[in-house]
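Question (not urgent): is this output format expected?
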Amino acid sequence: MKPNGNRRLLVALCTLIYVFLMLPLVVVFPISLSSAPYMQFPPPGLSTQWYERYLDDPQWIDATVRSLYVGGATAVLALLLGVPLAFSLARGRYAGRIAVDRLALAPLIVPVIILSVGLYGLFAKLKLIGEWYGLVVAHTVLALPFVVLVMMAGLRDFDRALEQAAEGLGASRLQTLFRVTLPLLRPSLVSAGLLAFISSFDELVVALFLAGPNMTLPKKMFDNILMEIDPTIAAVSVMQIVLVSIVLVLIGRFGRGLQGSAR
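Got this back:
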């Protein structure tokens, strides 16, 4: 087969995979606007009743707010821990650096269910089950690898001659860090923080073990699916998809813009 034929076949295969992955959205969006009293596709008519039901239900709102502030706290904590760790891994020369690198990335390798069981046993002893800050700590463990990977990628492309120039002009290391290094790494910081937020906001398995009676949005959706299935789930799913899409756009557009201005 000719190279052009191989390329067309690859494009066709990728297109089919993309369409297959996007098919659920074709169902979810119309159902969320259905006028039927139950899940029905295609919907008999259009209505915003399920979005109104979501907004009028304090349980849904509480779960959403809880997921937002847990995700925000997770992003902040993951950045506070991940940025110094990324610096040490990218620029440090110390014994055990490779082991630290593997340990930092371990949550990407270890199945989430195993990690959740282990954290449950530890948090039960510390009486953190059902506490929102316990959930933040657990989510930070899952989000930390994303921060480390993104920041290390930014540090690999960083021109250290800029730091040397600042120090040569009399800036201290601390001044160089806050006035030169971190401002130039803002695209990586923004991307890492947003990825940490999304990884926490959409996380379910750890929340099932550690959230207790306090609902996060994914846990509330899971419990509702077990009890009853109504189009409110579709409305919430659409809002989650929109939020994740906005965050991904911000990562792509805002990060590139900062990077371009930094140069």
